Amino acid sequence: xxxxxxxxxxxxxxxxxxxxxxxxxxxxxxxxxxxxxxxxxxxxxxxxxxxxxxxxxxxxxxxxxxxxxxxxxxxxxxxxxxxxxxxxxxxxxxxxxxxxxxxxxxxxxxxxxxxxxxxxxxxxxxxxxxxxxxxxxxxxxxxxxxxxxxxxxxxxxxxxxxxxxxxxxxxxxxxxxxxxxxxxxxxxxxxxxxxxxxxxxxxxxxxxxxxxxxxxxxxxxxxxxxxxxxxxx
Length: 233
What we know:
It is a single chain. By secondary structure, the chain is α/β, with parallel strands linked by helices. It has one domain (34-59, 80-219): P-loop containing nucleotide triphosphate hydrolases (Rossmann fold, 3-Layer(aba) Sandwich), CATH 3.40.50.300. It is built from seven helices and ten strands. It has helices spanning 49-56, 79-89, 105-116, 122-139, 155-167, 185-202, 213-218; strands spanning 5-18, 21-34, 38-42, 64-69, 72-73, 90-94, 173-177, 205-209, 221-226, 229-232. A hairpin with a 2-residue loop joins strand 1 and strand 2.
């Protein structure tokens, strides 16, 4: 039995206007991500990989086509509803971590929950959420770092915090943009082990943008983006 589709993109097109010039970044891109699989998206710099990932994650909107997240067409959603869907169903792991420097490790991991729950509910939810944050930090090997500032962590440790944060609300989709790009090989391999393990345990559909050939070969499928056109690798 095939796994259910967590995310689908139909004929996505994206372009930008620069003066009188039209710059086409994506052309008729169609793909699907299934529950429990890890898909690698490869291609040269400037091929449109990050643009596609931002569109799939509802951080950007296409000029043509539609993104369907867990059966919901994104084009039919208000910006407020898009934000709700993005926070609850999609986890992001970026190359540059994007941890909030004025908050400690625990507070960074809790951020999706603070956004998800109404302010009046947060005092009642906080204890349970902190328990989950501790469990996630333990799973990524950072159980002793919950009160530390992100500034005191290594690059690999920061990326593990970012992964714990991305997994907090048990998203059905995990989008990773060069998650090992700023890491040494050992730290990068550990991050990918954690990502594959999370997908296997939770059934999350994962897309990883990467230049790492070894990482791409570990994926269940590989997609190749070349000058805005998607090809099977």
